[in-house]
Design brief:
Blueprint lengths: L2 H16 L7 H42 L6 H14 L4 H27 L3 H21 L6 H15 L11 H11 L4
InterPro entries: HrpA_C
Pfam families: DUF3418
Length: 189
């Protein structure tokens, strides 16, 4: 799926979802079709602009990743690469949806900032990464549950707050808050 198709798919998904329920008869279907059609171009254009920004930053960040080859920072570089791939890949816009796509460029900027600071304080990066990985292991336990989707984005916000705090977060976030959300979704056994 190319970027434009991905953005159109995400726009339709958002606009249909906004209606609250699927149509039960032909008249309701035609009304939904009319409403979606009226807003589709604008929503798809917004998504395309946001996704394009994230892709440009992702390409620049991927180039930076390629320059970081010292063994001392290999684990951090691998983690950042994995995060980047999880955020920007074929189908990423429809996967993220309208609400989260607006944050993708900030998440990628946080990766880039982290990488620019990596050589200065590699030990600190490893420490922060360890804290993230502890929470991500817990997230992996609930990943398949439908109600776990928001936790994925809380983890991205936590990464921003730890590695690039100056970029700000979309909502208050802390390790405790993310852990509490994961425990709410599925209490630990």
């Amino acid at each position: 799926m190319d970027l434009v198709d991905d953005c159109i798919f995400a726009a339709v998904d958002h606009l249909v979802g906004r209606s609250g329920s699927l149509p039960q008869d032909e008249q309701a279907f035609r009304e939904l079709q009319r409403r979606v059609g009226a807003d589709l171009a604008g929503v798809a254009a917004t998504l395309t602009k946001q996704a394009g920004s994230a892709m440009i930053l992702a390409a620049r960040t991927a180039g930076l990743l390629d320059t970081l080859t010292a063994p001392k920072i290999a684990a951090s570089v691998s983690d950042a690469s994995r995060q980047l791939t999880a955020l920007v890949h074929p189908g990423f816009v429809s996967e993220a949806g309208l609400v989260q796509t607006q944050h993708l460029a900030r998440y990628v900027s946080a990766i880039e900032y982290r990488l620019t600071k990596l050589r200065e304080k590699p030990e600190r990066d490893l420490q922060l990464m360890g804290r993230i990985h502890t929470i991500e292991r817990r997230y992996a336990e609930v990943l398949r549950l439908p109600e776990a989707a928001p936790a994925r984005w809380l983890l991205q916000e936590l990464r921003v707050s730890l590695f690039a705090q100056h970029l700000g977060t979309a909502e208050p976030v802390s390790e405790h808050r993310v852990a509490a959300e994961l425990n709410r979704i599925s209490p630990p056994t």
